[in-house]
Specification:
This protein has about 210 residues and is mainly alpha-helical. The chain has eleven helices and no strands. The relative contact order is 0.09.
Length: about 210
């Protein structure tokens, strides 16, 4: 019985190591450039062992995307519990996303378009993101940072349309994450903010830029 538990623990640990290694490789090189052989070699395990756990690269990629989303959810929950206000949360998310974008090869996003199953998963996940955005907007209104006369449903649709437009026209290839954030997202965020909200945004951004 003890041997079985040890084997199961080793297997789970190895799965996590494979996901971490694959995630790093996909982000650094793009998806297409990474071979299953490369991942097995990096971990000094046999290809047979790797394929026993993840039957092919698409399965492995899907699991890395799911793991990253799950980790992201946990990260946001922790920030929600610790942050003083909604502006602070939004700007912390911005900093985390900016760092993620800077450390990810653009080929990753281009290659991802070749995997319909994963794109469907991400579209479904976007529904969760929209619900969270609505909660952020409502919290911001209650805290006095966003105007009470804004239509939160319309604002959500506008943010969604902006994101889809950036993706459709591959604007991430033409502009940095910071340029997109400050010239697209931040303009809209300030537009729905009260004077108190604008001052909080400006003060928070000064601290970020230090």
């Amino acid at each position: 019985m003890q041997e079985k538990k040890t084997t199961t623990a080793y297997r789970e640990g190895l799965k996590n190591q494979i996901l971490a290694t694959a995630m790093e490789a996909f982000a650094a090189q793009g998806i297409r450039a990474v071979k299953m052989d490369d991942i097995a070699r990096t971990l000094t395990i046999s290809k047979r062992t790797l394929y026993e756990i993840y039957s092919n690269k698409e399965v492995l990629l899907f699991e890395t995307v799911r793991k990253k989303r799950s980790d992201g959810e946990q990260w946001i929950k922790e920030r929600l519990a610790a942050s003083a206000n909604v502006i602070d949360i939004i700007l912390q998310i911005y900093m985390q996303k900016a760092e993620e974008f800077r450390s990810t090869n653009q080929l990753f996003y281009t290659d991802l378009e070749k995997y319909p199953q994963i794109l469907r998963f991400l579209r479904q996940d976007s529904q969760t993101q929209k619900l969270r955005l609505k909660q952020f907007l409502e919290r911001g209104i209650d805290e006095g940072y966003f105007r009470r006369d804004v239509n939160t449903d319309l604002v959500m649709l506008s943010f969604e349309a902006l994101g889809e437009n950036i993706q459709r026209h591959s604007l991430y290839k033409l502009y940095t994450f910071d340029e997109l954030f400050f010239n697209v997202f931040m303009v809209m965020l300030r537009g729905i903010s009260t004077q108190q909200g604008i001052e909080e945004i400006d003060n928070s951004m000064k601290n970020i830029m230090k």
